[in-house]
Amino acid sequence: MQTLLTVKSITYAQKGQQFLEKYWIHSSVVPTPEMISKRGCSYALLVRGDADRAAKLLEQVGIQVLGKYPYPLRKGTDR
Q1: Which of 14, 31, 37, 74 gives a 20 to 30 Å CA spacing to 64?
Q2: What span, in angstroms and rounded, lies between the C-alpha atoms of 54 and 40?
Q3: Among 71, 61, 78, which Cα is nearest to 1's?
């Protein structure tokens, strides 16, 4: 299962990706899909595996997770 974790910026996404790799949580930095992005250009981590654990780890190092969405997205997905 894959999950999108939205974050404030590409910098946070990149830092988050590097941090999660230390815990063997694989992720990719991707643009946030328009259907869930309310701020225009934003980025997300596409996490493979335990997204709840990934979100908790990110929050512990100061990377705020703005939203969590199952992937692939379905129409009608919102925050």
Answers
A1: 74
A2: 24
A3: 71
C-alpha span between 71 and 59 (Å, rounded): 21
Q: Closest Cα to residue 26, out of 57, 49, 6, 59?
A: 49
Q: Supply 10's token pair.
A: 């590409």
Residue where the block lists tokens 């309310």: 38
Q: What pTM did the predictor assign?
A: 0.85
Averages of pLDDT over each 10 residues, the chain, 79 residues: 93 97 96 78 91 97 94 60
Q: Find all residues with CB under 8 Å of 56, minimum gap 6, and list them.
A: none
Question: DSSP string of 15-76?
Answer: HHHHHHHTTT-EEEEEEPPTTT-SSSS-EEEEEES-HHHHHHHHHHTT----EEEEES--TT
Residue 64: what residue type?
Q
